[in-house]
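Chapter summary example.
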Amino acid sequence: MDKKILINIGRQYGAGGKGVAALLGERLGIPVYDNELLQKAAEESGFSPAFFKKSDERRRLWRFGSVFGLNKASSYAPSAIDGTELFKFQSQAIRDIAEKGSAVFVGRASDYVLRDMECLDVFICAPLEDRVARVCRHTQMDPAEAEKHIVRKDKARSEYYNFFTFGHWGVASNYDLCLDSSLLGLDGCADFIIDFGRRAGLIP
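The structure predicted for these 204 residues follows.
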């Protein structure tokens, strides 16, 4: 494949964005990065993967020495690290991957991180009731628990994105394409994104 394909997937919690990304990776034959970004960022920075996972898509400060073990970063002098530093490590991991070849990135403000590269930026959403039903199918939560969990996750993602990008998470003008997965289904979303990308000259 001569042309590099870079697709950034933003998503409401429970809308199936991760599933859409997996389908895109499978159909286009390119890697998908979600939790793998945490591992790569941890490797690059020296912090334990557990540290990054706990801080994932959150902007708050996390202190060392309580819950998380450090690997080679045990010599890191400060007793705490600002979320901005974690964002920098993860952003560098995203850019390193994007510079080397095609990829689908899930969340983590990758559309902002790669704003100077030729990318297809997509946001996957769905009505709350559909997201509640999806979360209930994949967890042991009842509908009331699922709705509270969704609200918390969306709030965290919104705060993370807005803080680090100075933009507005989920606002249509930030993306090339916004899709409602409840209307198209995950397969339909993947098909639509590929067709749109080809028409836009972003996917060969």
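To summarize the output: The domain at 6-199 is CATH 3.40.50.300 (Rossmann fold).
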